[in-house]
Amino acid sequence: MQHATPSATAPGSSQPWYRVLYIQVLIAIALGVLLGYVLPDTAKSMKWLGDAFIALIKMMIAPIIFCTIVHGIASIGDLKKVGRVGLKALIYFEVVSSLALVIGVVVGEIVQPGAGFGVDPSKLDAKAVAGYASKAQADSTIAHIMAIIPKSYFDAFAGGDLLQILLVAVLTGVVITGLGERGKPAIHAIEAAGEIFFRIIGMIVKLAPIGAFGAMAYTIGEYGIGKLGNLAGLVATFYLTSLLFVLVVLGLIARFSGFSIIKFLAYIKDELLIVLGTSSSETVLPHMMQKMKRLGASDSVVGLVIPTGYSFNLDGTNIYMTLATLFLAQAVGADLSFGQYATIIAVAMLTSKGASGVTGAGFVTLAATLGAIPGNPVPVAAMALILGIDKFMSECRALTNLVGNGVACVVVSRWEGELDPVKLREVMANPLAIGTEIADEKPVPVAP
């Protein structure tokens, strides 16, 4: 490919600006917002574009996660090391997730976004959130555990449940590792299949601008920017809290791990914009795994941490859970005790697992959290207050979850002593240029 003149290229790119993915997505989001504002009825009909793009991506997530995890475990060849990496990842997830929950409580108490609403719980429309409440009631601890087990080996792939896929992939990787030399043909077959699936994703992701346009147009056309007015305080508080968490908490973690959170955000800008447009962090899961490898994280750690983090490391969802719970409590005039605060944090830690950033998942987990608070001080029906703006907050949940998982991958890689410092320095020195190049590269097969 010949280099274009500087005036025709985007910063850090060797191709015309209009062919750069993140610029295309930015333009698509802007056009979607404009269409939703000017022609809301027409914009609503664009929903299928966003749904189709998300469906195409989700179609490939199950096989990609399976191949990545199985290959990662089998290539390590040491089950003790697999267990060690998994344990380190889970410890990190729980510590940072707990911190996110506490921050949501602290900010909610300080800012008091729901104070002054004076809502009468008896006049709330329970029917509006009945569907979310029924799903939450069915999600008991035992049901949550049983849901991880698929009906059959292949049912996990058919349903696309991340936790079920993780279970099947880990079991398969462990068995192949135990086969020793006899398992090598299976490793090579899985590696080849993984390369095929990643190349398919490379083709699908080029449709990201169309998907972002359709999803954003529908959001603005259906819900309208005006709905942000009455509850702007909650939305602004959530976004600012999430930004504070990313820049301060994850920023400090990143600094201790040898990189800048600002440069890291620049590096994954394409993925951030796609998530912003689609409200789903799953749409960029395969590309995040590729980018973490190019950043210097080891293949085995990426294969274990990123997919696992999508179910166990949901910082944005955790902030939302506690902050929204306090908002609703303040709106209905409920005075929560210390024990109820502790219950909120404990229950939210459990219910958030498996809410992988797909629109609506955070609302179901919020219903489960409200229903578990002793004394039921905040009726689940109170969720009707924020039903209209939940879609606007789902983008922030997914964005924060994405950044948190990327940082976790680098941290665990360094913790395990498998972070390539040369690659990390190279990326952090030129995050915009390298990030753009990676988005356009074809996936490179992982050596066994």
TrEMBL record:
Gene Ontology CC entries for this record: plasma membrane
Transmembrane segments: 20-40, 52-77, 89-111, 162-179, 200-220, 232-254
GO biological process terms, semicolon-separated: L-aspartate transmembrane transport
One Pfam family named in its UniProt record: SDF
Xref: InterPro entries: Na-dicarboxylate_symporter (IPR001991), Na-dicarboxylate_symporter_CS (IPR018107), Na:dicarbo_symporter_sf (IPR036458)
Annotated compartments: Cell inner membrane
This protein's UniProt keywords: Cell membrane, Membrane, Symport, Transmembrane, Transmembrane helix, Transport
Keyword Cell membrane attached: yes
PROSITE patterns for this protein: NA_DICARBOXYL_SYMP_2
Topology of this chain in the membrane: Multi-pass membrane protein
GO molecular function, one term: succinate transmembrane transporter activity
Entry similarity comment: Belongs to the dicarboxylate/amino acid:cation symporter (DAACS) (TC 2.A.23) family.
Name of this chain's protein: Dicarboxylate/amino acid:cation symporter
